[in-house]
Amino acid sequence: MSARRYLIIIEGNRETNFSAYSPDVPGVAATGASQADCEREMREAITFHLEGLARDGEPVPEPHSTASYAVVDVA
């Protein structure tokens, strides 16, 4: 087994909760009361999903997404 690095997108805030998804692993999502909780839950959800794909003989998606920030001046 080899380690793969999947991008996860986390949205939300402390008042409403956090949620996450990965563009490389469609259909997998997680939530958490804190960002750290959400990240942990998402890592577990991706692992569970990929293990299921492998067990069923389905292809495991290769990570391909990247992210960056756009820094812009706001008047």
Task: Summarize it.
Helices cover 28% and strands 19% of the residues. The protein has 75 residues and is an alpha+beta fold. The radius of gyration is 15 Å and the shape is flat.
- Major sheet characteristics: 3 strands, antiparallel
Shape: flat
Continuous helix count:
1
Q: Quick check: average pLDDT?
A: 95
Uncertain stretches of 5 or more adjacent residues: none
Percentage beta strand: 15-25%
DSSP helix fraction: 25-40%
Can you list the strand order of the major beta sheet?
1-2-3
Q: Separation of termini?
A: 50 Å
Q: How many DSSP-defined strands?
A: 3
Structural class by SSE content: alpha+beta
Order of helices and strands: EEEH
- If you compute it from the alpha carbons, what radius of gyration comes out, rounded to the nearest whole angstrom? 15 Å
Instruction: Please state the oligomeric state of the protein chains shown.
Output: single chain
Can you put this structure into words, describing what you see?
With 75 residues, the chain is α+β, with helices and mostly antiparallel strands. It has a domain at 9-55. The chain is 28% helix and 19% strand. It has 1 helix and 3 strands; from the N terminus they run βββα. The chain has one helix at residues 35-55, and strands at 9-13, 17-21, 29-32. It has a 3-stranded antiparallel β-sheet, covered by helices on one side. β1 (9-13) and β2 form a beta hairpin. The chain is flat.
